[in-house]
Structures are given as structure tokens and as C-alpha cells.
Amino acid sequence: MSVNAVDYISNNVSKNSAYxxxxxxxxxxxxxxxIKQILQTLLTDKECQEICNRLHIFAQLKQGKTQREISANLxxxxxxxxxxxxxxxxxxxxxxxxxxxxxxTNS
Length: 107
Prior knowledge:
Helix content is 68%, strand content 0%. It is mainly α. It has 2 domains: 5-42, no CATH class; 45-102. Helix 4 (45-62) packs across helix 6 (78-90) and helix 5 (67-74) packs across helix 6 (78-90). The termini are far apart.
């Protein structure tokens, strides 16, 4: 990464823009191991699993599975799937997450 994180913070980031800092940091990194380290530092194991579940929900919705099927496949509550389905309907998931079919999902 070409920008020192500490210098970036002190020079370009106000106290209220930590989210933008993170977005910029991830955008600038070409190193997947560095990105993994960032995410593992910021997120608990449970939060990482919730993100993975959300991606699996999107993939299975794209496959045409019902919310009940997805809930059973992933072992999550129907409310979790419903929240994911709501976002799926509101956003252009194909554009945001191309190639969701690459995600191995439970049948």
C-alpha cells in the first residue's frame, strides 16, 4: 500500500469520517492478506459469520430458493433471511457482488 495509514489519518481524516477512512484503505490495498487482517481486526468471529451468511443468502435468493429453504440450509432464523432478502430487493446485488454463483452454498 502506498499510503502510510497513520499519515493518512492525521492528514486527511476527521474524527467523523472513520468509515470513509476504512473504505479508502480497502480501496487502496491490492493485498488480500492485508484486507483479511483489517477485517479480522475490526470484526468478531460472529460478525464475520454474519457477513458470510448475508452473502450466502444473496446467492441462494439469486438461485430462486425460498426464504424458508435458505433459513434451513444456513441454520439461521427466518428473520435473518428476511433482512437479507429486503436488502437483496433494494440493491443491485448483481452489480455490487458479481459472480455470486462462485460462493459455495448449501443445497
